[in-house]
From TrEMBL:
Name this protein carries in UniProt: alanine transaminase
Keywords: Aminotransferase, Pyridoxal phosphate, Transferase
Family: Belongs to the class-I pyridoxal-phosphate-dependent aminotransferase family.
Cofactor: pyridoxal 5'-phosphate
Enzyme class: transferase
Sequence ranges assigned to domain HTH cro/C1-type in this UniProt record: 14-73
UniProt key word Transferase: yes
Length: 546
């Protein structure tokens, strides 16, 4: 049996055993971690898809929790320890089975780690075990399936990634012109933190917003998008076993970066009934001696929530009381609706260390330029060593894309074209209105009105759609209706009852997608026998429309 087939067979057995126990992937991950075998929900998901084989060091704990033998998980041998034999002495049988299992496991591991090419046998090159707990479903199995379907000539409506350019949302011509004019100056490396003019423009942007603490250009780092800077931060901040508090749901790169750095992402709940605001008490309850910081995504991806100043100040007080770093992901700060105003975290405190992340990918529709930044502000006296780590990592990658850096100064001042798109007469505003109204019209689906970003995060009533695997549910949608979206657990939500909708397509394409979604859910209600069931809309579904 090939490696791939073996992993897929293991995946099927694991899924069935987990479901038999009535556990979600998140609950199984928590049970294993509590039992001393630290593992993330992302790792469980990777095992259940056959992306990775089950890690041998985690196998005994996994088998014990699921109530089966290691041999059954690996090869389908003897499902339950209780059914190993009827007439043999239990102890002797167990000994024989364990010996056989160990011997077979060792043989299989040795065999499967070899690849034969011609007459040469060599060890298979495996990915690092550091990636076992890393998961990024936005570009995961669903996208791979969609790409394969497109290669076969099928048209897919993609509502999975917040990438404005493919949807006809063009970059400002002034930015393209200025970058083009500066290309002769952008052929070599820049300073490792970025060109002076761009960093100065970033600094002045925050000063115009009311930046409290004294900051200069040395506190600004330019990166290949915010993504690179998130990874750099986690590498500089976290030792093995350290924890960082990340919202649930989240932008999954934050969780992936924390796990990749050897740390642990601890998810705090955002309350849907409170327009997806962070649950402050849940944050307090999850702080331990290992907690290093709190991530705040505002405006939020995937929910579109915009946090009030009161909520931000409460987060600051929690960070201040426990000497935690505040990491403010504010990439959507200029994508706002209904005359809402965003308050940067750096303008509310100088009593805690604040790391502010932002860029041009969304607000100026130039995601491919990879123009992002990180600004360090607030209480820095105790963070000299950490900042030295950021300097080191910035130097190691030499510099960020210099061509993209020349877009920043132009983008930060003057006319902001995003405002026309999000105004009541604008394209994004109309697309948001249509997406949310159509979703709320589907029986068993409720959706809050986002105040920022390009996303909404609808809830599925599990009484009407009693699903257990939301990724498979989204896979069914893709295969049956050719609409690509990402399931809620892909954003580290702990229940399979949400999904994210990207409302970037024009009204015609978005309406087509909503028609397909409506048809898909109608078929599912018939399949589940819940066509006549009545869903009670949650208060949150219309809270922002009142």
């Amino acid at each position: 049996m090939s490696d791939n087939k073996e992993r897929l067979a293991q995946a099927e057995r694991l899924i069935q055993l987990r479901r038999d126990k009535g556990l979600t992937a998140e609950q199984l991950a928590q049970a294993m971690t509590k039992a001393g075998a630290k593992v993330s929900r992302g790792a469980i998901s990777n095992w259940e898809r056959g992306t990775n084989g089950i890690v041998s060091s985690k196998l005994p704990t996994l088998a014990r929790i699921l109530g089966c033998s290691e041999g059954y998980l690996l090869r389908g041998e003897i499902k339950s320890k209780d059914s190993q034999a009827n007439n043999e002495t239990p102890t002797n049988t167990a000994d024989k089975q364990d010996s056989k299992s160990v011997a077979t496991t060792n043989y299989n591991e040795a065999f499967n780690n070899k690849t034969t090419t011609g007459s040469t046998t060599m060890a298979s090159l495996k990915k690092s075990t550091k990636l076992q707990n890393v998961c990024y479903d936005i570009r995961g199995p669903l996208l791979k399936t969609a790409v394969q379907m497109e290669a076969e000539g099928q048209r897919i409506i993609k509502l999975n990634v917040g990438n404005p350019a493919p949807f006809g949302l063009e970059a400002p011509h002034e930015i393209l012109r200025d970058v083009s004019m500066n290309l002769p100056e952008a052929t070599g490396y820049s300073d490792s933190q970025g060109i002076f003019s761009a960093r100065k423009a970033v600094l002045q942007y925050y000063q115009s917003k009311g930046l409290l603490s004294a900051v200069d250009v040395r506190d600004v780092y330019l990166g290949n998008g915010v993504s690179e800077l998130i990874v750099m931060t986690m590498q500089a901040l976290m030792d093995d076993g350290d924890e960082v508090l990340i919202p649930m749901p989240d932008y999954p790169l934050w969780t992936a970066a924390a796990n990749l750095a050897g740390g642990k992402a601890v998810h705090y709940r955002c309350n849907e009934d409170d327009n997806w605001h962070p649950d402050i008490e849940d944050i307090k309850a999850k702080i331990t001696s290992k907690t290093k910081g709190i991530v705040v995504i505002n405006p939020n991806n995937p929910t579109g929530a915009l946090y009030s100043d009161d909520v931000l100040k409460q987060l600051i007080e929690v960070a201040k009381a426990h000497d935690l770093v505040l990491m403010a992901d504010e990439i959507y700060d200029r994508v706002l609706y209904d005359d809402c105003v965003h308050t940067p975290m750096s303008t509310l405190t100088d009593d805690v260390l604040v790391l502010s992340y932002n860029g041009l990918s969304k607000s100026h529709r130039i995601a491919g330029f990879r123009a992002g930044w990180l600004m360090v502000s607030g209480k820095k006296q105790h963070a000299t060593d950490f900042i030295e780590g950021l300097d080191m990592l910035a130097s190691m990658r030499l510099c960020s894309n210099v061509q993209g850096q020349y877009a920043i100064q132009t983008a930060m001042g003057g006319y902001q074209s995003m405002q026309a798109l999000t105004a009541e007469s604008g394209r994004l505003y109309k697309q948001r209105e249509m997406a949310v109204s159509r979703l709320n019209a589907i029986p068993g689906i409720s959706c809050t009105m986002p105040q920022g970003a390009f996303y909404c995060f609808p809830k599925i009533d599990l009484d009407i759609y009693p699903i257990q695997d939301d990724m498979q549910f989204m896979m069914d949608l893709l295969l049956e209706e050719k609409v690509l979206m990402v399931q809620g657990t892909g954003f580290n939500w702990d229940t399979p009852d949400h999904f994210r909708v990207v409302f970037l397509p024009n009204l015609h394409d978005l309406e087509d997608a909503m028609d397909r979604l409506d048809r898909f859910f109608a078929k599912k209600r018939q399949q589940f026998g819940t066509d006549d069931a009545k869903s009670t809309p949650s208060d949150s579904a219309h809270a922002l429309e009142a």
